[in-house]
Amino acid sequence: MLAIEIDTEIAPDRAIHVQLPQGIPATRARVIVLYESDDMSRLDPEGQHGNLDDFLAALPRNTLGRDREEIAALVEAERASWD
Questions:
Q1: Residue 59 has what DSSP assignment?
Q2: How does pLDDT run across 52-63, given as a tens digit for each residue?
Q3: 3-state DSSP call for residue 57?
Q4: Of 17, 27, 47, 56, which is the most exposed, with the fewest CB atoms less than 10 Å away?
């Protein structure tokens, strides 16, 4: 799958219009719309969805295995052994 980034304007009727570059074959495609907004509550008035940081903060911490600092120390020790 290939990706093309094209800047466009969202019209008052919430439509977007894009012209793809020459050489793009006629086929099916997926469209993902990314836009900036300071007011996400308009899209989620009931507060059912949060941002990614909130989601990650809500996940339980893994108490098994190594923590971030221990892994970083092991990686650093391995890199130091290469010299």
A1: S
A2: 777 777 777 766
A3: helix
A4: 27
